[in-house]
Every structure is written in C-alpha cells, then in structure tokens.
Amino acid sequence: MPLSDGISLIADKIHHLHEITSEHLRKLAAYAFTQLRKLQYVQNKIAEKLEPAKEDILQSIHKDDTDRVFITDIPTAGKSTADVLALANKYDAYGHFEVAKGKVSGTVYTDRGDEHLEMLAKIYHDYAYSNPLHPDVFPGVRKMEAEVIRMVLNLYHAPRGSSGSMTTGGTESIVMACFAYRNLAHSRGIESPIILCATTAHAAFDKAAHLCGMRIRHVPVDENNRLNVKKMERMITKEVCMLVGSAPNYPSGSVDPIKEISKLGLKYGIPVHVDACLGGFLIPFLEEAGYGIDLFDFRLSGVMSVSCDTHKYGCTPKGSSIVMYRTQELHRMQYFSVPEWCGGIYATPTITGSRAGANAAVAWATLLYMGKGEYVRRCREIVKSTRAIADGMKKIPGMKLLGSPDVSVVAFTSDDYNIYAVGDLLHKKGYNLNTLQNPNAVLLAQNLAIHVCLTYNHANEESVASFLADVADASTAVSQLPDKGNGSATAALYGLAAQIPDKSLVDEMAFAYLDACYASPPPKRDQ
To answer: Which end of the chain is more exposed for a tag (fewer CB within 10 A), N or C?
Structure first.
C-alpha cells in the first residue's frame, strides 16, 4: 500500500473513531439530562421557562388574525354563498407575504396565472366529489390518475413493466417506497431492515423509519454537501434494505452522485431509491434547457424507485406526488390487503383509502395544459436565476455558499457574522426564507445556514437583483453589530436548541408550535 493511502486510511479511521466517541458522549449527556428531568424541582424550572415560550409561539401563529373571532359551532342556519365567500376572502387577506414578487422561498412554485386557475376551477367543479377508490363509479378519474402516473414514468425513462402510484405529497411517496422495501426485506428474512441515506436526505425518511418499524443510518456528506459514496459503502450491512440518493437534497440543493450509488446497489444487490420530490419537474428538463446533469433516473440499472412531486415544479395544486417502481412486482410490495374483512375484501395501493379524485384531475389537467415545452422554458429561467443568485452571493463580504446549487436552491452562511440575524432582517423586509441547522459541522465555523428555494416567481432579473441587494444590506448591518448578530431571536432559539442534550425538550417546543396551529386565537397582547 502506498504511504499516502496508508496515511489517508489511518486519518479516516481516527475520524470514524471521533464520530463514534462524540455520538456516545451525546447519548450519555442526553441520558443524564433525562434522569435530571425526573426531579420535581427540575420539572418546575423547565415549565417556568417553557410556558412563556409557548405563549410566544401561540401569539406568533395568530398574529395575522386581526379580529380574533373563531368559529366553534356549525351554524344553525346555513350562510349564503355571498357571506361564505366574503369570509373566505377575509381569511385570505390575512397573508402578507408577496409571493408573486419572489419574497417566499419555495411554497408556491408557479405564478398562478388566471387562465390556468380558471381551467382548474372548471375541472374541480366536475371532479370535486370523485374518488379513485371506486373506479367503477368514477372511471374517468381512474383513467386520469393512471395517465398522470404513466406520463411521469416515461419522463423518468421507466422501462416496460414499470408501475407507480399517485400520493398526496412527497412524504407519502417516500413512506410508501420505504414500506415497500420493508416488506421486501421481510420476505427475504431481514427482520429489522435499515435505510441508508445521507445526513441531508429529507426528514420524511426518518418519519418512514418510525412508522414502518425500520432503522435508519445517516451517511456523511462531502465538501459539496453530496453523499459520500465511500462512507456509504462502508456502512452497508446484510440488513440494509435500501440505498437513498437525493436529486437534489432539500438543505443545499446539491444532487447526490446517483450513478455511483446505483453501482453500489448493483454490487451489493440492494435497491436504490432516488428522492426527486423537490426537483422532480426540473431535473428531467435540465439537459434540454441547456444545463448538464449526470444520469439520475431509470436509465441507471440500480435505480429501482423514484419519488417525484408534481405539486412543486410540475405546477399542479397541492396534494399530488408520484412514487415510481422499475417493476410491478416491486410496486406490489407497497399494496395492502385484508382479504377476510367482514366488510368485503379491502385493498389499497397507498396509505389512504378514499382519495381525492379532484387532486388527480387537476394534476392531469395541469400536465396537459403546460406541456414539455413550457416546463423546459421554466426550468431554464429558474436555473438561470438560481445561478445568478449563487454568483452574486459570492461577492457579498463575509458570505459563502453551503453545498452546490445544482438546481434551484441556494444555501448560504457566514463565518464572520450570524447568518440567522441576516435572515431575521430579511424577514422584516418581507422575505420568508428557510432556516437550516447542523448543515455540515466539518465545513462551518458556525453550524448554521439559511437557504432560498427559487420558484418561477423568482425567475426574473428584477427579483434576483432585489434579493441580492437586500441580502447585501442585511449582511452589512449585521456585520457592524458588536455581537455580530449572535443576539438575534432566531440565533438565540437555534443556539439554545443546539445546547440542549435531551432533544425531547426541542420536540416539546415543536409540538407547541403544531398545537398553536389548531388552537383558538388567544387574546391580543397589550402593545
């Protein structure tokens, strides 16, 4: 073995040992904190700190509810159409972010053109009460759903015999793929199967592991925030049931090396799943739009399944995604059936029983209305704007990119000042960006970042120039603060979360946020 290779191997082993030791120390600290929490005194102190924070969350969620009137009972007499529409319009006016001006990261991926919306309204009028669970009653919507699935399969170069399902969104598509591989693993005698994915893979894989009774192992990423294939190979065991690659990942928009992951899958006989939920209707059009990308779809023999959201860059209304399989046999692994139920034979292809036929209908209508030419054009403009923002970020003093902006996401951070403080200032200017944490401790002096996910609403020179100017102004302002922004609200929140060894406390605050979304509005605070 050459000396350089030997040194590299030793260094890698030391780093691996450090990772194991750090993980054990974190678990020990978490255990100690959990035991302390059992003491009544500690519980009282925690509650004393948490209650005001929960109230802050509740007030924040309801800050746009100007009148604080909350409907709790079905009216005795129904309201008129005019009254219902007036109230709906009032609720719609609560929102203040300027989506059409590129102020919001992700969330709404199309420009909501009047002609498109008018067509969708007519489609919804006809299919509002349809349900693909009953294909005999609604044969038209069954055909629509099947055609959407086949169109997307063909977009990903799926072979003859391929199959797939429409789901309600990316999380369900991911859960169904993991469920299929869990069932396949069980059929092969693997009792406790493992999902192997990058640290940057979507949290839906963790959710799937929890729901399906699987284990999940996270593979470190490289300097470009892409999955480290060598480390993935070293983590492969006989219990690994699926290898995951993202195209792109959510945090930094970097595309994992799908071709190399596919080779690993073939080498070890493990199915490869490509999560293209975010970029599913951009990456198939990149080449025609004039941008290069390595193979990522069924043209790679090791790729056995793909998840792709139509309701993002496919511009369909929310509630549609596609999970695709190379073979029908593999697709069947996600089916569920109760053949002896007294209510009749019960069989469903996805988690849900009844499905909103209107979702399938408007997705079908949108794909036909848009056409490949329009998707290519939009892809070109979105990627062009993404790269313009990435280039502009490099020119802002103290700012640096996180990962590689391969498709439509630009993640950025700073070693000179607190990036969360920059985000807080941008929020005051009307932006809604995404906060990241633990992006890559190896690369960052501060373990934090934020990102902007570009949509068609950002794909113009005015939005790009305005965003870069606002980021530059905010960065300058934060860099001139004595504490470099470390005292900002978001910096304090995430700083506290990082220091808490028992993450159940973080869970508690996250659940308080979810509770607040369903709560009646609290009385307004005195200004």
So the answer is: C
Distance of CA 176 to the CA centre of its chain: 16
- How far is the C-alpha of 363 from the C-alpha of 369, rounded, in Å? 10
DSSP run (H or E) holding 513: helix 504-518
**Cα–Cα distance measured from residue 436 to residue 422, given in angstroms and rounded to the nearest whole number:** 13
pLDDT score of 53: 84
Calculate the CA 366 to chain-centre distance.
Answer: 22
Q: How are beta strands 194-198 and 240-246 bridged, if at all?
A: parallel
- How many angstroms separate the CA atoms of 459 and 469, rounded? 16
Strand-strand pairing, 194-198 and 215-219 = parallel
Distance CA 390, CA 133 (A): 45
H helical segments located in 394-460: 419-428
CA distance 337 to 353: 11
Q: What residues are paired with 243 via a beta bridge? A: 196, 272
> For tokens 């591989």, what's the residue?
181
CA dist 102 and 93 (Å) reads: 18
Phi, psi of 152 (to 5 degrees): -75, -40
Question: Exposed, middle or buried, 133 (CB in 10 Å: 0-12/13-18/19+)?
Answer: middle
pLDDT in tens, 378-393: 999 999 999 999 999 9
* Residue 26 identity (one-letter amino acid): R
Rounded to whole angstroms, the Cα distance separating 257 from 404 reads 12
- Mapped onto helix, strand or coil, the DSSP state of residue 7 is helix
Distance CA 17, CA 119 (A): 59
- Could you tell me the pTM of the whole model? 0.91
Alpha-carbon distance of 296 to 259, in angstroms, equals 7
pLDDT tens-digit readout, 193-239: 999 999 999 999 999 999 999 999 999 999 999 999 999 999 999 99
